[in-house]
Specification:
Organism: Calocera cornea HHB12733
CATH class of the largest domain: Alpha Beta
Strand order of the largest sheet: 14-15-13-17
Radius of gyration: 22 Å
Distance between the termini: 54 Å
Helix content: 25-40%
Number of domains: 2
InterPro entries: Alcohol_O-acetyltransferase, CAT-like_dom_sf
CATH architecture of the largest domain: 2-Layer Sandwich
Mean pLDDT: 42
Low-confidence stretches: 1-42, 48-192, 213-237, 280-318, 340-436
Shape: globular
Protein name: Diacylglycerol O-acyltransferase
Length: 482
């Protein structure tokens, strides 16, 4: 049990990506954020960051940090990604609150970050950025990787921030009841060899990268010498595991094939219906933690991604409603979602950095990915998030996840003031051809105190009742010869 708790604590990771527009200001803010066990004082933070800057002879504007909480200590870890600059070029270290740059105060209250998130920025001269000196975006995405006792690893988004650094005037307008859209909404990148290389890196190299990075972390680790022992993390994730028996899964897959729908579309729509009692469609928005690079495949006409999450008004799919009265109505409700997945006109655009990889913007590669991961035939049709390897942690690799096993993260619901569900995740195992033998496992995850146990169990129960209702309706139609 102690080892399990240690592993759970060690899976708290912060993936941070920072890109800024260098032309707009004489200083470029390159940030990396911390989630300390308790608030740090300014001298403590500046001391830790200053020591890190001086210890590395060559730094990079593309920095990532991770804080681990275990055995009463926290460890600050840095790793370098691209575009080097030298330590002597650092002009200063600032601990200004990250929200003053672009974020509305609503975001801080939405994600309950008060007193627990600290930002620090290295101020660099433009000459440190090289000849190009162009950065397009700054955002931060926070992931919590849950290592469960039975060996199933579920990756869920704990909370997502958007940091539009460098020039607050570049921030876009805040949608009514929503969160500001990112700077990337204005950026377009044509297909290029670099984009193709980035896509290949994401698909083939990155699955092996977490283990390699883990090996690099150790020499850079320094203990946090806090004055007091850290308290436990204020939130923790809960989960419930359900099994879809092989016979039921086979019927659901057959129903999807007959109507041009993937398992993903069916399950998404069922959960969308199951969440309806918790949603006020006048104020709340849909959050989907699908890889940002795949979002244009799914929602080609919607707004841009935020951080690692897609944020769209509920009107994109209509407000969630209770399960329809007939199977035909349900299928009609699911097909618009499926149409986004299958739209052949979609071409990925934008300069979107995700983890260590980057945006998949090469049209030919997108056609390949759509065929391999979105199609309703061949591989399991619900494995669109197989490409989510950039969000996999070393812990998940050690837990046995491989790219052919699907991880799908279900929509989250929230308003600008109160987040209803930090995460409700779905993990689907097995391939379509093996459904008769294996069935599949659905893992629902949510943050404690964000959803009450009654609310979470209600979503789970309504989702389970929904797929059983689908099967009964399909059997009834088959018996009637419809």
């Amino acid at each position: 049990m102690k080892e399990l708790e240690r592993r759970k604590a060690a899976t708290v990771e912060r993936w941070y990506v920072a890109r800024t527009v260098a032309e707009a200001t004489p200083l470029v803010h390159v940030g990396f954020d911390l989630l300390p066990p308790h608030p740090l004082t300014r001298p403590e933070l500046e001391s830790a960051l200053g020591a890190a800057v001086l210890r590395l002879p060559v730094l990079h504007p593309f920095l990532s940090t991770r804080v681990q909480h275990h055995d009463g200590s926290a460890e600050l870890e840095l790793y370098r990604v691209e575009d080097e600059f030298r330590a002597e070029e650092v002009l200063s270290v600032s601990t200004a609150a990250p929200f003053v740059h672009a974020l509305d105060s609503q975001l801080e209250s939405t994600f309950d970050l008060s007193g627990r998130l600290w930002g620090a920025w290295l101020h660099l001269p433009p000459s440190a950025l090289g000849a190009e000196g162009r950065y397009t975006k700054a955002y931060a995405a926070v992931y919590v990787h849950h290592a469960l006792a039975d060996g199933v690893a579920v990756c869920g988004v704990a909370r997502t921030l958007v940091l539009l650094l460098n020039n607050p005037q570049l921030a876009l307008q805040v949608p009514q009841g929503g969160i500001p859209l990112p700077l990337d909404a204005r950026v377009s990148t044509a297909p290029s060899a670099l984009a193709l290389a980035s896509a290949a890196f994401t698909a083939f190299i990155h699955p092996h990268l977490p283990r390699f990075l883990t090996a690099l972390y150790a020499p850079r680790t320094q203990p946090y010498m806090g004055a007091t022992p850290p308290p436990p993390l204020p939130r923790r994730s809960l989960h419930t595991i359900l099994q879809i028996p092989p016979a039921q899964l086979a019927k659901l897959l057959a129903l999807g094939r007959e109507n041009g729908l993937t398992f993903t579309a069916l399950l998404h729509t069922l959960m969308w219906c199951a969440m309806s009692p918790l949603v006020d469609p006048a104020t709340q928005h849909l959050y989907t933690s699908v890889p940002a690079s795949l979002l244009p495949l799914m929602y080609p006409s919607g707004p841009a991604p935020i951080g690692g999450c897609y944020v769209a008004p509920i009107q994109t799919r209509g407000p969630p409603a209770a399960l329809p009265a007939t199977l035909a109505q349900f299928l009609a409700q699911a097909k618009p979602y499926m149409a986004h997945l299958k739209d052949p006109r979609v071409v990925l655009r934008g300069a979107q950095a995700w983890g260590l990889a980057g945006m998949l913007s090469y049209e030919g590669m997108i056609g390949y990915l759509r065929k391999q991961f979105v199609s309703g035939t061949g591989r399991n049709s619900f494995a669109i998030s197989n490409l989510r390897t950039v969000a996999f942690s070393a812990e998940q690799v050690r837990a046995g996840w491989v790219p052919t096993r699907g991880v799908f993260t279900q929509p989250m619901l929230g308003s600008s003031a109160t987040l209803l569900a930090d995460v409700i995740s779905v993990s689907v195992e097995g391939r379509e051809g093996d459904a008769a033998q294996e069935g599949c496992t659905v893992v629902f995850c949510w943050e404690k105190d964000v959803l009450s146990e009654e609310e979470a169990e209600g979503i789970i129960g309504r989702t389970r009742d929904g797929w059983e209702w689908l099967i009964r309706e399909a059997d009834k139609q088959a018996a009637e010869g419809v």
